[in-house]
Write a structure and sequence with these properties.
By secondary structure, the protein is mainly beta. It has four helices and 20 strands. It folds into two domains: about 170 residues, Jelly Rolls (Sandwich), CATH 2.60.120; about 70 residues, Jelly Rolls. InterPro entries: Carb_Metab_Reg_Kinase/Isom (IPR051804), RmlC-like_jellyroll (IPR014710), RmlC_Cupin_sf (IPR011051).
Length: about 260
Amino acid sequence: MEKVWGREHLPPPFTSESDNRVGEIWFDPPAELPQLLVKYLFTSEKLSVQVHPDDARAPDGARGKEECWFILDAEPGARLAIGLRQSLSEEELRAAALDGSIEDLLTWHAVEPGDFFYLPAGTIHAIGPGISLIEVQQNSDITYRLYDYGRPRKLHLDDALRVARRGSYVRRERDIVPLTGERTLIDGPHFRLDRIDGEPSEAAAQRYRGSLLLVPVDGDYAVAGEAVPAGSCALVEDIAHITCTRGKALITQPS
């Protein structure tokens, strides 16, 4: 999907090179798991400062949007922002969005491959340039922009202020992910997400009953004998169908 902040040259394993800036690759949710959306993001410029509603504040009975980011690649100095450095009143947040000072009020995190961040709905956030990541989220496209660096795109200040958490974001211990070993990243109200090394463990098999999604990060994954390369996403009817001799992957399903 073309985005003004995307890239003309994508990192491996993707090979797209064109005059268009590709910012996102989406995988349409399968009928078996309509609640989840998996996509890849590639940035060459800053994304807007934005926020998503939760289920209770989404319009017309739509889903809210909780999401998380698994960092695949990051250029030196790459950063993303999650939450505010200090609590602000609604009036202070509106003023900061209008004059652009909101950018300096965000909590910016340096990122490296393998980092993980979980964003509850209502968390103000932004992604800087030079980052490739996997995003796992509730299947929702509701985004309210607070600030867009002067780009000629619509802002949604009233809606954003209505749903935004105006406090600071504290990074959880679970967000600090060791480089190796199976790890539960999220077991939340909307979805669970694990990072696995090679084939899923017996413990993972106990947690993941029924259909799930497999998102290989690297290695030689297959599902029921069919190769599933890095850069793809596969529906898995039974976790026992996943085979691998070498690699890392994410697995996820609705809670």
